[in-house]
Structure formats: C-alpha cells, structure tokens
Amino acid sequence: MAGSVSRRDFARLFALGGSAALFADPVWARTAPQAPAFAPGGASAGEAFWKTVREQFVMPADLGVLNAANLCPSSRPVLEALKRETDSVDRDPSGQNRARLSGEKENTRKALAEFLRVTPEEIVITRNTSEANNMVSSGVELKAGDEVIVFADNHPSNLTAWNEKAKRYGFTVVTVPQKNPHPGMEYYLDAYTKAITPRTRLLSFTHLTSTVGDLFPAKELCALARARGILSLVDGAQTFGLLDVDIADISPDFYTGSAHKWPCGARECGVLYINARAHKQIWPSIYSAYPGAVGISRTFESFGQRDEATMIAFREALQFQTKVGRAAIEQRSRSLAQQLIAGLAKLPDVKVWTSPNPSLNGAVVSFLPGSLNPPRLGQALYEKEKLGLAGRGLGDRGGLRASPHFYNTPVEVDRLVGAIGRYLKTGV
Q1: Under DSSP, is residue 186 helix (H, G, I), strand (E, B) or coil?
Q2: Which residues fall within 8 angstroms of residue 279, CB to CB, at 6 or more apart?
Q3: Distances (CA, A) of 222 to 104, 111, 155, 252, 299
Q4: Residues 271, 400: one domain?
Q5: What is the mean pLDDT of the chain?
Q6: Among 273, 288, 319, where does a domain finish?
Q7: CATH number at residue 348
Q8: Is there a smaller number of Cβ atoms within 10 Å at the N or the C end of the chain?
Q9: Largest CA distance in the chain
C-alpha cells in the first residue's frame, strides 16, 4: 500500500546509503502508517512512527522549522548520497569514473517518472522550478496577437517571466485576479473559462500558491485547456513532494517542481514534465553537450556539465518519501496545517489569510499576527522559541507564513500557537 512501510523494505532502502543501522528500531514495523488510519485532519500512524521519521533529519530536536514552502532539510540518505558521489568525482575525476554517472542520471529520470506516474521520455531534469517555468515561457512559440492566461498570484517565474517576454515577442498576457479568502474551485474554473478567447494559446497557474496556500483545480483547468486546444502549465513547486500528485491523471502539458522544497532533496535540482503530446510544440532554450538518453531529454537537456551527485541525491529523496508513504506524508502535513489554522483562529486579532477549508488548502498557512510587527515577531520566534517561519512582508496579505511538513510535529505547532498567544499579550 502507498501509505505503509515495512521494516525490511525500509532497512533495505537505507542499506544502499550506508544507513541501515539507523533504522534498527522496530518501531518502524510496529507503527508503520496504514492508509485507513489517515482521515483528513484526524488520526495519524502514531507519534512514535513520526518521531523515527524526524530522526532521519539532522535538525536538532528542539528546532522547529516550518518553512517547507521555501526550503526543506535533506534527510540523512540524501546527505550521504550527495557526499558519497561528490567525493567519488573529486577523488577520481577521470572520464572512466564519471561515465557511470550518465546511467545514474537516467535512473533518477526513471524515479521521477514513477513518482509522477508518467514516462521517462517526458521528464527533463532541471535545476529548479524557476528554470523549468522559464524553459516553457521561452520555448513555446508565441507571436503578436497570441494570448497567455496567467494567475495574479503566480510565482514571479510564472508571472513576471510571462510579462517580460510579452514585451519582447508581442503576445498579450491576460491575468486572472486573486480573491481572498479562497472563493472556491468553481470560481477559478469559471474565471479561466471566461478569459479564454480564440487567441488564447496557453493557460498557466500555480497548483498551490506560495503566498497563502490556495489550492487550484488543476485537473479541471487542464481538461478545459485540452478541450479548447490550448496548452497548460502547472507550477507544482508547492505540490511536488507534498501532495500525492498523479500527473497522468491531471494531464497538463507542462508541470514543474523543485527538489529543495517538499521532496527534501538536494538543492539545485528540479523537474520539468513535458507531456508527449506537447513535445513538438516547444523549443529548447539551451543547446550544449551531455543530453539525456530518452525522449524529450535528448533535445531538451543538453545543459553542459552537470552535478550528477545532486541528481542521485534527488533520487534518494524520492525513495525516502515513497518508503514512508506519499499518501501518509500528505495527510500528515495537511493535518498539521489544519491544527495550526484552528489554533491561530482562536487567538484574538489574528487574521488567517489561508482558507480553513481543507479541500481548498494544502500545508501553507499565512496569517497577520494582530498588531504585532511581523518581522520582529518572526525574529523572536526563531531566537527565543527556536521556531522558524517565513516573512510575508507588510504588503499584500502580509504577516508570517508557516508551512509544516512530515518531519514537523503537533508539539511544534502547539509551541508556535502558544508563543504567538503570549507575544500578543506581552508584545515583542
């Protein structure tokens, strides 16, 4: 089952990275999560299991960083793979030693394809989501008179990039405005439908916004685009590694993600999925040496010298999540977010920007902490409480943002809510 892990499987996985001794604790077998136990916002596999998961990260036990939407820690298997493969090349940088890395890169491609439920021929290994998004906006052929529909709350790599390239190539960018609180999936489906014209060539949106954690109807929007003969780009930076995404089911033309966020992989590695039906509708942005071996990667992945160690470590991160259980990870993270939303809602004068409806959010929670100064509060939470959050500035839906992941705990969420409550009384 997707949400279960056996002691034998888990030990076998980490034996490959030299960490088998770390997982001798039979709690892995005794408290492994079973899918039926994961009701939305409810029961978990038991804190003993999740404590063992947390121990596979090198963060101190008393440090609670809830900032997965920006940067996640890498697990021990990822760190070990990164060090092992980097050391191997530095000890022996010969062509003979490095030749094996081409095969390792292809193994990572296969792992990414399996993780997203697509084919290796549709996978390009990039540096991050920003690069992948820009490969799409630079690679799709657009001209004066064409239109691209974007969302006002897209990440700059999927909003600013389109606006800047429109200045160069003469196409028009049509923006669907953001509504707060989340107005519901039907609202955005209707808004995109109304924005489409005979000139529309592509629609683009963020699967889960990094600002306040609004979830988008990805499958429905992609189906809308497909029915109208329009390309679709889904920015998956905040869903890849968090939600148990099935890209074959969502069926976008393009989907992007990063290793350093929710997958908890090595930095400077990411993914661009290009649906087979769109291979002839996009041009490469870079032409160099060392392409991939299959499908679109043979023409789209000639990036010159790469750091294969990060790619191998990326694969370890995907395997780690698969063994823990992707459905279990999603339920764990979203349950922690719901716990946080409920706790913040009880505090006087706190404005929670994120929808409390679990069908409209993920695990990104933004809030305005009453009259407290958000940057000062964020600094106090880190320095005095050992809790790490992200700032949201003082402008649009400003305040602080917390994005818990499966290595976080209910105790850390309670600590955060309790600390904010105290500071609301005493000031910062």
Answers
A1: helix
A2: 295, 296
A3: 32, 24, 19, 5, 25
A4: no
A5: 91
A6: 319
A7: 3.90.1150.10
A8: N
A9: 65
Instruction: Look at residue 41 in the predicted model and tell me its pLDDT.
Output: 31
> What are residue 254's DSSP bridge partners?
233, 274
DSSP E strands in 320-392: the ranges are 350-352, 365-369, 387-388, 390-391
Contact between 158 and 206 (Cβ < 8 Å): yes
What token pair was written down for 174? 């049509």
Q: Which of 270, 288, 319 is the last residue of a domain?
A: 319
Residue among 134, 194, 193 at smallest CA distance from 158: 134
Residues 182-201 have pLDDT tens digits of: 999 999 999 999 999 999 99
What whole-number distance in Å separates Cα of residue 407 and Cα of residue 422? 25
pTM, two decimal places: 0.90
- Token pair 């530095």 is at which residue? 90
Q: What's the distance, Cα to Cα, between the start and end of the chain in Å?
A: 47
390/341 same-domain check: yes
**pLDDT tens readout for residues 40-57:** 333 346 899 999 999 999
Token pair belonging to 252: 């976008």
Q: Which domain holds residue 416?
A: 329-426
pLDDT > 70 fraction of the chain, expressed in percent and rounded = 89
CA atoms of 89 and 45, how far apart (whole Å): 41
Give the pLDDT of residue 42: 34
**Contacts of residue 245, Cβ cutoff 8 Å, sequence gap at least 6:** 116, 207, 236, 239
